[in-house]
Specification:
This protein has five helices and four strands. It has helices at 11-23, 38-41, 48-74, 91-113, 146-158; strands spanning 2-8, 28-32, 137-143, 163-168. Strands 2-3-1-4 form a four-stranded antiparallel beta sheet, covered by helices on one side. Helix 3 packs antiparallel against helix 4. The longest helix has 27 residues, at 48-74. It is rod-shaped.
Length: 169
């Protein structure tokens, strides 16, 4: 995959470039700025709470069924006239294991959503990106399609960026 990186002198110029690139529906557009953009500053809905809830419920029900199978079918014991399906004894541990499943889904889901651990990104080799956290406003377009990248390069060049360079994987 290759990409195009353009640096701008102001936030308004970056927003104009991002709006034009988003209108073209390119594969992946990323911004590198010293402060969050207006669109990124507002909280967006994350799928992670729903994934955690589903993982917790599946874990709870799955472990409850596993303990029921083990107690009723696989290894039934008649202890003091207790019924074969003694569900109140299974609830606490099934709940704890359901919470464990939810927390595991949350832990690994967070890393998946943040694309971590990503120790290397090809845009880091660009000369201009070193100033992105201090005083630069950069937009990067990643794509595997050469035609898409040339279109993005022409569009960014028309916006008169401070710097414009290509990077490769």
């Amino acid at each position: 995959m290759k990409g195009v990186l353009a640096g701008f002198t102001s936030e308004q110029a970056l927003e104009r470039a991002v709006d034009r690139l988003a209108a073209k529906r390119l594969e992946r557009i990323e911004t590198y700025t010293p402060k969050p953009r207006h669109e990124e500053a507002e909280p967006t809905g994350s799928p992670l709470p729903l994934v955690m809830f589903i993982a917790g419920m599946v874990g709870f029900i799955g472990f409850l069924l596993l303990m029921t199978y083990a107690d009723v079918r696989a290894y039934p014991l008649d202890i003091g006239g207790r019924p074969k399906f003694a569900w109140p004894a299974f609830i606490p541990i099934a709940f704890e294991l359901g919470v464990l499943c939810a927390m595991g889904a949350g832990f690994f889901g967070y890393f998946w959503l943040c694309r971590m651990p990503q120790l290397y990104d090809s845009v880091d080799n660009s000369d201009g990106i070193k100033n992105a956290s201090r005083d630069g406003w950069f937009v990067a377009v990643h794509s595997s399609d050469i035609e898409c990248l040339s279109e993005a390069r022409l569009l960014l060049a028309a916006l008169d960026p401070e710097s414009l360079e290509e990077f490769a994987e």
